[in-house]
Amino acid sequence: MENSEKYKSVLRIGDKVLDFDTKFININYDELGEEIKAQKDSLDTYSYLVKLYNQHLLLARKTEDELSDKIRQEAFNMALADCKKMGLYLDIFDREEFRTMMIEQLSYEEVLDYQYEVGVNIGREEGEKRGIALGEKRGIALGEKRGIALGEKRGKIIGLLMAGMDTNKIMELTEASEEEILDIKKNLN
Fold this sequence. Notes:
Elements: E1 4-13, E2 16-25, H1 34-39, H2 42-63, H3 69-85, H4 96-103, H5 108-162, H6 167-174, H7 178-188
């Protein structure tokens, strides 16, 4: 088949490993190989229905700003009628879940929007986690820095008090308030 690709796949479930080949087939009708089209099987029929449905949606987009469920339903019904006229019809087309899937299918733009939103949300969550972690690290570092600075300042004040220096002179040298110095002095005694 000229429009298919094979891939080596590995599926791990717990401690079990399943190794298999995966075959991807482009089922867009215009991309189907002549071999598949000639078989007139369910893949060919389904692919053709999707092609007709998308053509009807394209026509509707030319006259409508937004594709409502009603317009999608009408496009689907027209595609079904076209397939029936050509003798291309599968029993699955009558199943409600199939109709719902076809009518409520996401457009390419809707898929991109959805993927964008998912990406934004993942990015936001990861950014918040990183931001919190970074904030905690910076907070701890800043706290340590302030603690060290405060300890050094208190140490200088204690040393100057023990040397008998005047409170006003200590305030001038350390930029400490009189209240800080008196509190340290009180705890020294």
